[in-house]
Write a structure and sequence with these properties.
heterodimer; A: 4-stranded antiparallel beta sheet; 54% strand; globular; B: mainly beta; 7-stranded mixed beta sheet
Chain lengths: 114, 114
């Protein structure tokens, strides 16, 4: 079975500072990896995804993530955050082949302060 | 046009009542899902339908009954509502055999049982 661990439940950061949100996964088979963002009182929006190939993937709103197979990690980064980045961020995995079942981590609350 | 739309957005009801949440997608996807997000923001899959066939049925009380009249619609009916059913319920859609694409989510239905 697959599982996702987001190592920080909350990450406070000042505006224009860099940020990293950490995600580790567990799976005995190949997986696809995703980061979703949930702004207050809204649904989930896809930020970026890793399918194969280059381990550094770029997404919307200036976010990027790096896949590290040896460490089974998929950390999300942004070099300079804005107040508008305040949201809940979810890491998720799906298994290649079979039914498309997305397993989510518990989420990380990013709070950007002025 | 909204890709995945849920109604209602907010639902306040008394314990013991029966209620339904509706979901429609216009993306041509063949699979739809219901997720429950609890007060700690944890997302848990409840059900998934592929072309009107139930393919994922997680451990959910049988007071919850999904119904899919066609592949573009997935409704969730809840009988005898309990306080613990209070949560945000998200509908999502995808192509079942395309684990690379992730899901498209609706904006959620906030259910409050009083």
């Amino acid at each position: 079975a697959q599982s996702v661990t987001q190592l920080d439940s909350q990450v406070p950061v000042f505006e224009e500072a860099p940020v990293e949100l950490r995600c580790n996964y567990s799976s005995s088979v190949s997986v696809y990896l995703f980061w979703y963002v949930q702004y207050p009182n809204q649904g989930l929006q896809l930020l970026l995804k890793y399918l194969s190939g280059s381990t550094l993937v770029k997404g919307i709103n200036g976010f990027e993530a790096e896949f590290n197979k040896s460490q089974t990690s998929f950390h999300l980064r942004k070099p300079s955050v804005h107040i508008s980045d305040t949201a809940e961020y979810f890491c998720a995995v799906s298994v290649s082949g079979g039914y498309n079942k997305l397993i989510f981590g518990a989420g990380t609350r990013l709070a950007v302060h002025p | 046009d909204t890709a995945v739309s849920q109604t209602p957005k907010y639902l306040v009801t008394q314990m013991g009542n029966d209620k339904s949440i509706k979901c429609e997608q216009n993306l041509g996807h063949d699979t739809m899902y219901w997720y429950k997000q609890d007060s700690k923001k944890f997302l848990k899959i409840m059900f998934s339908y592929n072309n009107k066939e139930l393919i994922i049925n997680e451990t959910v009380p049988n007071r919850f009954s999904p119904k899919s009249p066609d592949k573009a619609h997935l409704n969730l009916h809840i009988n005898s509502l309990e306080l613990g059913d209070s949560a945000v319920y998200f509908c999502a859609s995808s192509q079942v055999r395309d684990s690379r694409a992730g899901y498209t989510f609706g904006s959620g239905t906030r259910l409050t049982v009083v």
